[in-house]
Design a protein that fits this description.
Helix 6 packs antiparallel against helix 7. The chain is built from 8 helices and 16 strands. It has 281 residues and is α/β, with parallel strands linked by helices. It has one domain: Ribonuclease Z/Hydroxyacylglutathione hydrolase-like (Metallo-beta-lactamase, Chain A, 4-Layer Sandwich), CATH 3.60.15.10. The longest helix is centred in the C-terminal third of the chain and has 15 residues. A hairpin with a 2-residue loop joins strand 15 and strand 16. The strands form 4 sheets. A 5-stranded mixed beta sheet has the order 1-2-3-4-5, with no helix packed on it. A 5-stranded mixed beta sheet has the order 8-9-10-11-13, with no helix packed on it.
Length: 281
C-alpha cells in the first residue's frame, strides 16, 4: 500500500496511519459501515488508491484544523468536515507561495521525493471547490461499531478539534496533544490565546479516564494521557522559566522561541507570552 510519498502503518483495532513525507500522520479509522479519514496533509499525491486498498466503505473526511500540512490535501476529496472557525484560515493557506515553500522544504529534507510530486499540478490545485460541512463540539460520527466524538480544542488554532473513539478510548488529537513541537507564535487572528489553550487542556484532563492511546498528527504515536498534563504544566512553566529559551526559525512565517518541558515543546512569540502573563495580573 505504500508509495514513495506516503507510508501506511496498521495500528490495530482496524485503524491505520497514512504518513505523508515522513511528516504528517493522517488517520484512517474503519468501522463496520463507514470509514473516516482524519486530515489530508499537504496532498502531494492522491491517497484515495491507498485508502481503497484498505477499505471500500463510504468515506467521511474530517480536518483537525486549517493548517496547510493538515488540509491542503482536501482537493482530492468532494466533501470535507471542518470547524467553522478554521475555514477562513484554510482558504488563506490555499496559495502558490505556501505550496511552493512546502514543496521546497520537504525536498530539502527528503531529496528522494524529487520527481514523485507533480509540482506543476500541485501548485495549480485549489481546495476552494470542495463541499465543506461544519462540525462542532459534541458532534458524533457513527461508523458502525465505532463512534467518534468531536472535541473542540482551541489553541494552536481557533478551530482545532480532536476525535475520541468513545468505545475504545483512542484519541486522535491533531496538533493539540503531541510530543512534537506545537506552534503558538502566529498572530491572534490565526492562533488562539494561551488562556484558551489552557482551558482546552483542562477540559481534556477532566476526561482523562476516558482516554487510552493518543494518536497525534506529528511525532511518535501512540502516546499516553500524561502528555496532556505535561502540556498544561508547560504553559505555566513557560511564564516563569523562559530566560534560556532559544530562537526557533520558521520557514513559512515569523520566528518564535522554543520552550521545552518534560516530553513537550511549545514554540511561542514574546508577544503571546506577554499577553498570557498579563492575564494573571
Amino acid at each position: 500500500m505504500d508509495s514513495v510519498i506516503n507510508k501506511v502503518y496498521e495500528l490495530g483495532n482496524n485503524n491505520y496511519c497514512i504518513r505523508e513525507a515522513d511528516s504528517t500522520s493522517c488517520y484512517l479509522i474503519v468501522g463496520e459501515k463507514k470509514a473516516l479519514l482524519f486530515d489530508t496533509a499537504y496532498g502531494y499525491e492522491d491517497i484515495n488508491p491507498i485508502i481503497r486498498e484498505i477499505t471500500d466503505l463510504p468515506l467521511i473526511v474530517v480536518d483537525s484544523h486549517g493548517d496547510p500540512d493538515h488540509a491542503l490535501g482536501n482537493y482530492w476529496f468532494d466533501e470535507v468536515y471542518i470547524h467553522e472557525l478554521d475555514l477562513g484560515k484554510l482558504f488563506r493557506n490555499d496559495n502558490q507561495d505556501i505550496k511552493r515553500k512546502a514543496i521546497d522544504y520537504r525536498l530539502q529534507k527528503l531529496p528522494e521525493l524529487k520527481g514523485a510530486i507533480d509540482e506543476e499540478a500541485y501548485l495549480a490545485s485549489t481546495i476552494k471547490n470542495v463541499d465543506y460541512r461544519f462540525i462542532q463540539a459534541g458532534d458524533v460520527f457513527d461508523l458502525g461499531g465505532k463512534s467518534l466524538e468531536v472535541i473542540h480544542l482551541p489553541g494552536h488554532s481557533y478551530g482545532c478539534i480532536a476525535l475520541l473513539d468513545q468505545k475504545n478510548g483512542d484519541l486522535f488529537s491533531g496538533d493539540m496533544i503531541t510530543k512534537h513541537n506545537i506552534w503558538y507564535f502566529l498572530p491572534n487572528d490565526e492562533q488562539a490565546p494561551f488562556s484558551l489553550a489552557a482551558a482546552a487542556y483542562d477540559k481534556l484532563l477532566k476526561r482523562k479516564e476516558e482516554i487510552g492511546n493518543i494518536y497525534p498528527a506529528h511525532g511518535p504515536a501512540p502516546i499516553q494521557s500524561e502528555v496532556i498534563e505535561q502540556l498544561r504544566e508547560a504553559l505555566e512553566d513557560m511564564k516563569l522559566n523562559n530566560q534560556d529559551d532559544l530562537l526557533f526559525e520558521s520557514f513559512i512565517g515569523p520566528n518564535g522561541y522554543k520552550h521545552y518541558y518534560k516530553d513537550t515543546l511549545i514554540i511561542y512569540s514574546k508577544e503571546r507570552l506577554e499577553e498570557f502573563i498579563k492575564e494573571d495580573k
